[in-house]
Amino acid sequence: MKRREFISLLGGAAAWPLAARAQQAAMPVIGFMSTRSPEDSTYLLAAFRRSLAEGGFVEGQNVAIEFRWARGAYDRLPEMAADLVSRGVNVLTAVGGDPSARAAKRATSTIPIIFGMSSDPVAAGLVKSFNLPGSNATGVFSLTSLMEPKRLGLLRELVPGVQLVGVLLNSNFPPAAQQLREIEEAARTIGQRIVVAKASTDDELDAAFVAFVRERADALLVAADPYFDVRRDQIIGFAEQQRLPAIYQFREYVLAGGLLSYGISLTELYRQYGVYTAKILKGVRPADLPVETVSKFELLINLKTARALGVKISDNLLSLADEVIE
Question: What's the number of domains the chain is made of?
Answer without folding.
Answer: 2
